[in-house]
Amino acid sequence: VCRLHGRYHEMAPNVVPMDYTKDPDVKLPMQLIINMPELKENPFKERIVTSFSEDGEGSLSFNDFVDMFSVLSEMAPRELKAIYAFKIYDFNTDNFICKSDLEQTLNKLTREELTAEEITLVCEKVIEEADMDGDGKLGFADFENMISKAPDFLSTFHIRI
Amino acid sequence: KEDNDSNEEDSDSQQNRASRRKNYQRKNRDGKKAGEEGSKQRDRGKKAPTKDQKESENKEKKTTTKGKEGENKQKKDRRNSTSSASSNSSDEESLSEEELAMLMEQVEQKKKLISTMRNKPWRMVKKLSVLREAQAFVEKFEGALGKGKGKKLYAYKMMMAKKWVKFKRDFENFKTQCIPWEMKIKEVESHFGSSVASYFIFLRWMYGVNLVLFGLIFGLVIIPEILMGMPYGSMPRKTVPRAEQATAMDFSVLWDFEGYIKYSALFYGYYNNQRTIGWLKYRLPMAYFMVGISVFGYSLMVVIRSMARNANESTADGDDDNFVFSWKMFTSWDYLIGNAETADNKFASITTSFKESIVDEQESNKDENIHLRRFLRVLANVLIICCLCGSGYLIYFVVKRSQTFSKMQNAGWYERNEVEIVMSLLGMFCPPLFETIAALENYHPRIGLKWQLGRIFALFLGNLYTFLLALMDDVNEKLAEEDVVKNITYWTLLGHHNSSVGNDSTATPPPLDPADVPRGPCWETTVGIEFVRLTVSDILVTFITILVGDFIRACFVRFVNYCWCWDLEAGFPSYAEFDISGNVLGLVFNQGMIWMGSFYAPGLVGINVLRLLTSMYFQCWAVMSSNVPHARVFKASKSNNFYMGLLLLILFLSLLPVAYTIMSLPPSFDCGPFSGKKRMYDVIQETIELDFPLFVAKIFSYVANPGLIIPAILLMVLAIYYLNSVSEAYQRANGELKKKMQMQREEEKNKRNNKTSTNPMLQDLDDLITPSTKTESQPKQAEDKKIESPDRTSPVRKPGKGAVLDGSPMTGGRGAALAPRSHVFVTQPVTPGIWAPYPGQPRPRGPPLGLVPGRGRGQPRY
C-alpha cells in the first residue's frame, strides 16, 4: 500500500499529502491517472478509471486508487474481478452490456480496423453465445456465467504494480 | 421485562439476534458523524449510512461499561427508537451464560466478515469502515469473553494468536519480496505479453528445483568426500595414472573432461568404497545411493505437485467452443501491456484473430475436399517419419564411428566431438524442416503447434535413446575389458610385493605408488563424462544460436537495412520472434539429461545450476534487445500443464536407464563407492545387516518376499482403477448438474424477465451503479435464444429418456423448435406416467404448460 501511495503521490506531488491520518479529501482527475505507464496503452483506460471512481466522473481519491489496483491485482478473487469487468465494459452504464456497448468494445480493441459487417457479425455472435435470458443484451448473470468459464480471464485482467 | 428478555433470547435463533442488533445500530443513529467519514459520505446505497451508525454505536459502546444487558433490552423496542441515551441505562455487572454464547457468536461472525472482506464488491471506504468496526468489536469483546480467572489466559491466547497471524503475514510479504528476478520478468511481460513471460517463469521454477537438487548432492555427497575422505593421490582411483600425467593439465584434455577433472569429486570414480569415513562415521556409499534415489523422488514430487496446482486453476471444463467470440472480446486484451509497440502488435493480433474467427465461422459450412486433405496429411506424416528414422540412424552411425575413433591415437577435435555436434545440428535444422512439411497438413494453428511440439519431442527422444544404446554398447565392452584388467592388476601387485620384499616374506612391502597401479576401465565415470560433455555442448550450441540467430541477425537487419535492396525489417530476415516452444523443449530435454547423468557425475547438477543462472540473464537481455513480440497470440494458460506433462515423461524416461544400470550391471571393481560389490544395491543390504538391530533385517527380509509384494501391487492397481472410475462418475455428475443449472436458470429468466432480480450480487451491483431503465425483452430474440442455446445441452439430459428424445425431433415438421424443450414436449404427447420415475423434477412441469403458447409463436419460423 505504501508503494501505491508513493505512485499516487508522484502523480501530483503538490496536491497529494503524505499524511493520510486526517483523511483529507483529495482526488486526482482522470487525465493524470490515464497517463500512468501501466494504463497508458490500455484501450479501456477511461472506462476503468470511471468505474472505480466514486462520483462517476473519473476522479479517483486514494481509496479508489487502492481499490482499483487491488481488484486488478493477482490476488483478487474471480467473482470480484467479474463484477468490475462488467462495469468496465458497460459503456452506457445501464447495467447491461447491449449491442452498442459491444460495438464500442470491439472498436476499441481493434482500433476500428474491422468493416461494419464484420463488427455486426461479431456482436451478434457474442450475444448469441452469452445471452442466457434472451433479452438481446448481456445482463450481469450472463456475463458472469460466460467469464467464469474463460480460461485466461484471470491472467489477462491483471495489472502488476 | 427481564423474564421476557431471557425467554426471547432462548427462543430466538442466533441469526435473528445478529440482524436485530444490526438493525438496532442502524436505527439508532444520532447524526453523530465520525470525523473521518464526513468527507466521504456518499448518497447512494442504503448500506452507506450504516457505517457511521456503527462507528457512532461503537463509540457509545466504548463509553458505557458492560452495556450489553441494556442493549439487549433495547433490542426489543427496536423500530424507530432514537433514544441513544437508553444504551447508557441499566447496565448489569454480570454476564450470563447465554449472553456469553451470543457474544461469542457475534465475535465469530465479525471474524468471518473480516476474513471475507476481500470478496465483497463494496467501495473501499465502506470496506475500510466495516473492517475497522468489526475489528474494534472483536477486540473489545474478545477480551471480555473469558470469565474471571480464565479471562487473562484467554486474552493472552488471543493476543498470541493475533501476533502469530501478523507474523505469518509479514513472513509472506518477505517471501514475496525475495522471489528473484520478479522485476525482470515483469519487464519482459509488459513488452511481450504473458506467453513469453511464462517461459521465463518456467525457467525460474527449474532453477529452483535444480538448486535444491544441487544442495542435496553437494551437501550430502561431495562435501563429506572432500572433507573426510582420503585426499587426492592417496589411492589408485583418485590419482591420474602415470601414463596420462604428462598431458593431464592441458586445456584440451581438461575440456574433454579427462585429466585432473576426471579424477576429481565431480565424477563417480573418485569416491572410495569405505563403509564409513571420518570421525562422524558417515556412511558414504549409502549416502551416495540414497541421494541418487531421492533426486528422482524429489523431482517427481515437485513436478506432480505443480501439475496438480495447475489443474486446479484451469477451470475450463469443455465449454470451450461455446464462447469463442465472447472470450475473444472480453479476455483478449492483456492488461499487463505497458509498451506502445507491444500494444500496437496486440491490436493487430486481436484484429487478425477476429478476422480469422469470422472467416472460420463463415467457412465452417463449406465442404472441403476431405480426401485431398487426408492424403496430404498422410503424406506429411510419412515424410516426417522418414526424417525421424533417418536422424536416428545417423546418430547411431556416428556413435559407432566415434567408438572406432576413440581407439585411434591422434583423433582430431572434430572426430572426438562428432556425436555431440551431429546431435546439436539435428536439433537445430529438423524443427524448421518439420514446420515446412507441416504446411501441407493445413491444420488449425493451435493443433498444428501441438503436432509440431510432439514431433520435435519424438526427434529428441529418438536421438537420446540412440545415444544411450550406443553408450550401453560401450559400457558392455568396458565390462569385458575389466576382467582382463583385474587379472593384470592382481598379478602386478603380487609381482611388486615379491620383488620388493625379497626373501623376507613377513615384512610389509612398501606400497606401490598409486599412479603406477594398472587401472580398470571405470565405465561409470565414462558414462558420466559423456553426459557432461553432451550437456556442455548443448549449452554452447544454445548460447551461440541465440547470439547468432537473434542478436547478430538483429544487428544485421538494423544496420544493413540502409543500404539493401528490399526492406529487411519487413521482408525476409526481419527480427526474430522468441521461439517459446523450442526453448521450453530445450530446457525440458536438458533437464532430462541432467537427471540421467547425475548419478554418475555428481557435479553435473552444479554445472546445470550455473547454466540456468546465466541463461536467465542472457536470454532476458537477448529477448529485450533483439526480439520482436509475436505476431500471433500464443495462449499461455492451457499449455502450462502440457510442459509439465512433458517434464514428467522425461523424468520417467530418464529414470529407466539409471534404474536398469543400478539393478543389473555390476559396478567396477576399482572405482566408485560401490566397488567390490556384486550389485550396487547391495549397499542397502549391507547397511541393514550391520548397522540396524537384528529384527529390522528380519522385517525387511519378510517384506521383500515376492508373496507379499505381488498382492500389494495388485491391490494398488485395483485402487487406481477404483479411484479412476469414481472420478469419472464425479465428472459425469458434475456435467449433468451444470446442464441442469443452466436449463433452470434459463427458465427462471424467461419467467421473470421484467421483474427485478433478488440475486444479492446484482443488488450490490445496483448499489454501485445508478439503476437503469429496464428495457423490454424482445420476443423474437428471446425465441432465438431459447431455441439455440438449449440445443447444445439437450443431447445430454435425461439419458433414461434417450429413445423418446431421439424420436421426437425426427418426427413431424416441428424441427429444431421441438428438440430443446423436448423434455417438455415429451410429456405432452406421452402420458405423464413417464415422469413418475423422476420425482426430483417437479419444477419443469409447471412452466411447460405456460410456455406452450410461447412456443406456438416461435414455431412457424421453422
Automatic annotation (TrEMBL), chain A:
PANTHER family assigned: CALCIUM AND INTEGRIN BINDING FAMILY MEMBER 2, CALCIUM AND INTEGRIN-BINDING FAMILY MEMBER 2
- Alphabetical list of InterPro entries matching this protein: CIBP, EF-hand-dom_pair, EF_Hand_1_Ca_BS, EF_hand_dom
Q: Which residues form the EF-hand domain?
A: 77-112, 118-153
Q: What is this protein called?
A: Calcium and integrin-binding family member 2
- Note whether Repeat occurs among the keywords: yes
Question: Does the keyword section mention Transferase?
Answer: no
Keywords for the protein's UniProt record, in alphabetical order? Calcium, Cell membrane, Cell projection, Cytoplasm, Magnesium, Membrane, Metal-binding, Repeat
State the compartments where it is located. Answer: Cell membrane, Sarcolemma; Cell projection, Cilium, Photoreceptor outer segment; Cell projection, Stereocilium; Cytoplasm
Taken from the UniProt entry, a GO cellular component term is: photoreceptor outer segment
Q: Which PROSITE patterns match?
A: EF_HAND_1, EF_HAND_2
A biological-process GO annotation:
calcium ion homeostasis
Can you provide one Gene Ontology molecular function annotated for this UniProt record?
Answer: calcium ion binding
TrEMBL record, chain B:
Bias category Polar residues: which stretches? 770-780
Biased segments, Basic and acidic residues type: 27-42, 49-74, 740-751, 781-791
Q: How does it sit in the membrane?
A: Multi-pass membrane protein
GO CC annotation: plasma membrane
Source species, domain of life: Eukaryota
- Recite the UniProt keywords alphabetically: Membrane, Transmembrane, Transmembrane helix
Give TM segment ranges: 205-227, 286-304, 378-399, 419-440, 452-472, 599-621, 642-663, 699-723
Q: Where is the composition biased (Gly residues)?
A: 853-862
Q: Which GO terms describe its biological process?
A: detection of mechanical stimulus involved in sensory perception of sound; vestibular reflex
Name under which the protein is recorded: Transmembrane channel-like protein
Task: Cite the source lineage.
Answer: Eukaryota, Metazoa, Chordata, Craniata, Vertebrata
